[in-house]
What does this fold into?
Amino acid sequence: MNPDYNVAPINPLPPVVWALAIPMALIEAVMNLAQRGILGGPEGIGWRTAAVRDYAVFDSVFDWMIASLTFPPEHLIRFVAYPFLHGSFTHALMAVVFVLAMGKFVGEVFRGWAVLVVFFGAAIAGALVYCALLSTRVPLYGAFPAVYGLIGAFTFILWARLGAVNADRRRAFLLIGFLMAIQLIFGIVTLIFQGGASWDWVAEFAGFGAGFGLSFVVSPGGWRAVLGRLRQP
It folds into this structure.
């Protein structure tokens, strides 16, 4: 057995994936150290709360912007900033892992700019649907609506490949179906034992739909290539 010592210890990732994952990790590292009193002194303990206040998406802020037809930059930035802010180390860790995993698969097929369109498009769509459908005081933050957008792009890629070999395209939706089942079970358990359920799944599945839909436009060849594949006998 002759090992190749020139092989990278981890699979190479598209640069755009690192550009999304590294800021998430760094922001969480700062927040975590501040909560422990290592950074920022006594004031650092409140940094996460202040960040949520300033950068999370609030339904009340959205309603005010729509009612007043006023869209100040400090509030619009929330729709693209909230994916980089998380509630805990575990929350951020899971988000980074999913961004790396889904981003690698999508980034190996899509161009870098297309990955960004899917990621931020899903984040914006998820936040808009969250605010439009719900009346809640619970802010929306965390990368999962955008991650579900990458899952939507992942599903699109599988869907297109299955269609190219005349296989059952429904198989492409197994992952999102599994995630929906997990969300349902988790929601029921939370409702029973905590007396309330999280509504983040509304933004997440809206993000999935946006990611899947945007892939028709930003995938290599775009909509024309998809139509060509669909027209093949």
Remarks:
- The longest helix spans residues 112-133.
